[in-house]
């Protein structure tokens, strides 16, 4: 009998472990310490906005905090170090702890990720916090990511932010804080995660990681780990021969990547965005900025509309070819 295929998770890097399953953590010591001091001191701010580029480790930090706040035994070099076999840690991994709520993009009726978090999904957050903690401790909720809330969903969580219940903490993962509602930003204590140094990146992703992968990851450990898992050496080899332009390599790059089709497509477009951004920094010119914007729009449309990957790849090639032609 064929095993049932697991539903895709909308809040993880392709082919990488989910943040709730990640226990090894590098960097961001000051940010973890700030959360730990609030938890130990009993004067915990009710809402924390964890900001930084995607793949920086924001969600992993949120889950580290959640395990400790829910009572997992800590012990190690860092404040939130816990053991994967701790009973509470295991329940967090299994998504079965009653005092932990995760708000993320759901799936549409075709089983594909939605483009946004809907208002009905956001209202579940208020329902969760309306109840007393099941196990007498704290209630913790993680929104991953607040950027995905549509306007009505964003307004729906404001009531929780304005009238936080006792013994509750809300962690909001945010990739672009300037794009979210000011009323959300103003009600949260903000922690900004910075890019890691090269030694830290090697510690996080492994010294055997190809240097091109580190260049693409730009100090984001989650991105480096995901690219490595998707076939890092082949990706690096392909990109190394595409210095003049990667448009023609896009279909081959898609075939070399591992993971589900929507994950591979998102990764290809993100690699193209990084390449375009680098060309813009190197050469200047509005055509590179416009190409980046078009690729970002394409990624959102491809994911939300369940677009045929071949069609999306062809559009990406066209965007890159037009940008390369504009510089000549």
Q: Low-confidence stretches at least 5 residues in length (pLDDT < 50)?
A: none
Helix content: 40-55%
Number of helices: 14
CATH architecture of the largest domain: 3-Layer(aba) Sandwich
Radius of gyration (Å): 20 Å
Name given to the CATH homologous superfamily of the largest domain: P-loop containing nucleotide triphosphate hydrolases
CATH topology of the largest domain: Rossmann fold
Strand count: 5
String of helices and strands: HEHHEHEHEHEHHHHHHHH
Largest sheet: 5 strands, parallel
Main sheet: which strands, in order across? Answer: 2-3-4-1-5
Strand content: 5-15%
Structural class: alpha/beta
Write down the oligomeric state: single chain
For the record, the count of structural domains works out to 2
Shape: globular
Question: Could you tell me how far the N terminus lies from the C terminus, measured between alpha carbons in angstroms?
Answer: 58 Å
CATH class of the largest domain: Alpha Beta
Overall mean confidence score, pLDDT? 87
Written account of the structure:
The chain is of the alpha/beta class and 328 residues long. The chain folds into 2 domains: 19-192, Rossmann fold, CATH 3.40.50; 230-326. 48% of the residues lie in helices and 8% in strands. Strands 2-3-4-1-5 form a 5-stranded parallel sheet, sandwiched between helices. Helix 12 packs parallel to helix 14. The model has no long low-confidence stretch (mean pLDDT 87).
